[in-house]
Write a structure and sequence with these properties.
single chain, alpha/beta, Rossmann fold, seven-stranded mixed beta sheet, two-stranded parallel sheet, 13 helices
Length: about 300
């Protein structure tokens, strides 16, 4: 009624429709504003990003109020990193539900292993794990790479990752450090950036696209470069506190991020029924055309740990 009283036109759209259909209607009807609630925010933002028109999304329940600030998310993971139970420390109970087991987490790790193994053919893999958490996954895949740089905004996760590598005697690690302590030298030769179980904790799709763009900028090389996006939630599966990413948006990252040449989308193969509904994606870039960029987090540094190497 407010739209009609303002003299504008109102067009009802169903967020369950295919994304391409929604974008086509937006273009044909020359829609400039999309109104939605929190449950349809991911779809509305996906349409906004895909459309060639300048569109404003007005959400009655901004995701920032549902997820909280970035500092709150970091504080959550700092608390989880202190847990002895590896399922809790890796937030796997949250991801898979209370019936998740170590077998389910092992299946997930093997899935990520398989995605990275595909990128090792005839070339050296130099990995940067962005959002490494307590380091359980990084330790699992470390021997696939000649060098691994592990980064996390949580200092507790950084400390636990260091301990994890030391306990397992892993020596193929370049650095384990917080985002605030990244120095350009760490990024000079990274060929693959890993974002595993990270996207669902971002506030919105615009931030997701920006994060993928930043990850792209943290890799270099004369040959192909890749980003591994593991454990992505489709919108229909995401709850009010977790971000869903439409497959159609991920497939079109090449039109949103310079240098992205192609995107391979992989379905989950794990046995857990909830985890199997999620998916993975691997954007590929061509040779780097610029120097690697630092991913800067606005959080003010506290008692930052010293950079640590296990060469």
């Amino acid at each position: 009624m407010a739209t009609l009283r303002a003299g504008a036109q109102y067009v009802p759209l169903d967020p369950r429709w295919p994304l391409d259909r929604l974008v086509s209607l937006i273009e044909q009807l020359r829609i400039r504003h999309i109104g939605c609630d929190g449950s349809a925010l991911e779809v509305a933002q996906a349409v906004q990003l895909r459309s060639e028109r300048s569109i404003e999304v007005v959400c009655a329940e901004p995701r920032a109020t549902m997820v909280g600030s970035a500092d709150n998310v970091i504080d959550l993971f700092e608390q989880l990193a202190l847990e002895e139970d590896p399922l809790v420390a890796n937030s796997f109970v949250v991801r898979g539900g209370e019936d998740s087991s170590m077998t389910d987490m092992d299946d997930y790790h093997r899935t990520v292993w398989g995605l990275l193994e595909l990128l090792t053919n005839d070339r050296e893999l130099r990995l940067i794990d962005l959002g490494c958490g307590p380091g359980t996954l990084a330790a699992r895949v470390a021997n696939l790479a000649s060098s691994v740089v592990c980064v996390d905004p949580s200092y507790e996760c950084v400390r636990r990752t260091r301990d994890h590598f030391a306990d397992q005697g892993i020596a193929a690690v370049g650095e384990v450090t917080s985002i605030l302590e990244i120095v350009p030298e760490l990024l000079r030769d990274r060929t693959v950036a890993l974002l595993a179980s990270v996207a669902q904790f971002l506030p919105d799709l615009e931030t997701f696209v920006e994060t993928v763009g930043l990850a792209k900028g943290m890799t270099v090389g004369d040959g192909p470069r890749h980003i591994v996006l593991a454990d992505l939630f489709p919108p229909e599966m995401a709850s009010g506190s977790l971000l869903g990413v439409p497959r159609a948006l991920v497939s079109s990252l090449g039109s949103l991020i310079p240098e992205v040449q192609s995107v391979a989308v992989h379905e989950q193969t794990t046995r857990h029924p909830l985890l199997r509904q999620r998916y993975n994606a691997v954007p590929q870039m061509g040779p780097a055309t610029s120097e690697p960029r630092l991913l800067v987090h606005p959080r003010v540094a506290g008692n930052a740990p010293e950079p640590w190497g296990a060469q």
